[in-house]
Amino acid sequence: MIYLGTASKSLAPAVGLAWAVAPSRMLPGLLETRRTLGAGADALSQLALADFIASHRYDRHLRRLRAGYRRRRETLDASVAAFADAELRVSGLAAGLHCLLDLPPGVTEEAVVTSAAARGVAVEGLGDYAAGDAGDTRAAIVVGYGAPPERLADEALRELLAAVAGAERSSSAATPA
User: Cross-referenced SUPFAM superfamilies, in alphabetical order (predicted)?
Assistant: First the structure.
């Protein structure tokens, strides 16, 4: 078993710091792979992260991030619950930076993705993540609620829900009565 970690999501992808805790028997192969693929992060970045961790500032930073992401998820859950369509719901663990927005029957992922893009919101359908003939065929949108800057998160959510409503109206109009 190998434990892998990275500071990319909690600090910045450009920092490029990651780590592995592996059994000693695997160390020679891992080091050889690292040499083959190129050098790791510079020493200054490694020392800065080590100080950040040792001083407990990294822990405080992570707690602050988690609290902010928890608030965003709670806002997303409440906004979807208040949305006019009772068949629209959020699923997935209430942790992390992503969740699924399960779409009402008749509303396609493609329609919502297109409508959201026209409103300046980038989302992907769950089908984009399927490998081959994966069994889950429900229509859902993958919502990354950690990406928008704090000042734009609420607006992005409103635009996404408006995109769903627009896609829903389009599918209703296309369906003969």
Answer: PLP-dependent transferases (SSF53383)
